[in-house]
Design goal:
By secondary structure, the protein is mainly beta. The chain has a single domain, classed as Beta Barrel (Porin), CATH 2.40.160. It is built from 3 helices and 18 strands. It has a 16-stranded antiparallel beta barrel with strand order 1-2-3-4-5-6-7-8-9-10-11-12-13-14-15-18. A two-stranded antiparallel sheet has the order 16-17. The radius of gyration is 21 Å and the shape is globular. It starts with a helix and ends with a strand.
């Protein structure tokens, strides 16, 4: 309650201070979004690699249609984003399944922001998480398949946060969020009891880094580093490292993923994601590794762009420390799995 009261006082004080400076300038309503579909084939003829999305085997399948609205009036702005299709419905909200008739759409983002000054703003609502390198929308990722770090981490957080730009190179965010990830309704027994913070750095042109923490009694504690450096006009290197400790002893995971990519031409790029993912001793209900086991995954991806259209051919090879995958007979365990996918994504 003390934390909520402090945020409320900050909000009220900022509104009072900014009132006299408020502008009535209104931007046009911005509409953006994407559509995507894919074909995936596992060489063992099994749906072996259990990451988010692209989960159907030997099928031309739907991703989602995603529609985002944005508008600014003076110092106030809002973002509303909804999605339809497996990637944007039950695979994002993590409840229900393909046959659940009540799971007809998913709110990806629904929040409002007020900029008290050029440096200080506050945002409240349901937001795509600030943790991690990858996102739900395929437009925001180089690879079409997702990492185990993404799949096992938060997708969204509901709450209120404050952002302050200390300088052009340093920014901070602090916020309070619902007790659990990926839901816009808190358990009333716990309420808004998760603390989050981010330190953003831009040491030199083309290099950005984010140090993130999200901690709560029901969600556990995740520490995350996300960074990307555009080393040359053509070569980019990204990194994501994270450690999640659940609410029980030795529950959670740790991992790191490296993302080098090179632009061969304006319309053709190649990228490699190399990931190491390790489940802790008492980990449960994780994708990619069972308790005290690990998985190494290599994903080679190409992006072929023309206008708003991107073709994404991809080859992925996963190797685990135990026999968590299946051979083609569907019965015999094996430590490795490989798959090929071809996705088409159109952004508008």
């Amino acid at each position: 309650m003390k934390k909520l009261s402090l945020l409320s006082l900050l909000l009220a004080a900022g509104l009072y201070t900014a009132h006299a400076q408020d502008s009535t300038a209104t931007s046009a309503l911005e509409i953006s979004g994407s559509v995507d579909a894919y074909y995936k084939y596992d060489f063992a003829k099994q749906a072996n690699i259990g990451t988010s999305f692209a989960s159907d085997q030997n099928s031309v399948s739907l991703g989602m249609i995603d529609i985002a609205l944005k508008k600014t009036t003076g110092k106030a702005s809002f973002v509303g984003e909804v999605s339809f299709g497996p990637r944007g419905q039950y695979q994002s909200i993590l409840t229900g399944d393909a046959n659940d008739g009540s799971n007809t759409f998913h709110i990806q983002n629904l929040y409002a922001t007020y900029a008290f000054t050029d440096k200080f703003s506050m945002t409240a609502g349901f937001m795509g998480t600030f943790v991690g390198y990858e996102v739900i929308s395929p437009v925001g990722n180089f690879n079409y398949s997702t990492s185990y770090l993404f799949t096992n981490g938060p997708f969204q957080n509901a709450g209120i946060k404050a952002n302050y730009a200390i300088s052009d190179k340093v920014g901070v965010m602090v916020g309070l969020f619902n007790d659990s990830w990926n839901t816009f309704q808190a358990n009333p027994s716990f309420g808004v009891n998760t603390f989050g913070a981010q330190l953003s750095l831009s040491p030199v042109e083309g290099w950005s880094a984010y140090l993130n923490v999200l901690s709560g009694s029901q969600s556990g504690t995740i520490l995350d580093l996300t960074t990307a450096y555009q080393i040359t006009d053509k070569f980019k290197l990204g990194l994501n490292a994270a450690d999640w400790s659940g609410i029980n002893d030795d529950e959670g995971y740790t991992g790191v993923a490296l993302y080098p990519s090179v632009a061969i031409t304006d319309g053709f790029a190649l990228g490699l994601r190399g990931e190491y993912f390790k489940a802790k001793e008492n980990a449960t209900a994780l994708f990619g590794a069972s308790a005290d086991e690990s998985t190494t995954a290599l994903t080679l991806t190409a992006n072929l762009k023309h206008g708003g259209l991107t073709f994404i051919p991809e080859f992925r090879l996963d190797n685990a420390s135990n026999e968590q995958f299946l051979k083609s007979d569907g019965l015999t365990g094996t430590k490795s799995a490989s798959q090929f996918s071809l996705a088409v994504v159109y952004a508008f």
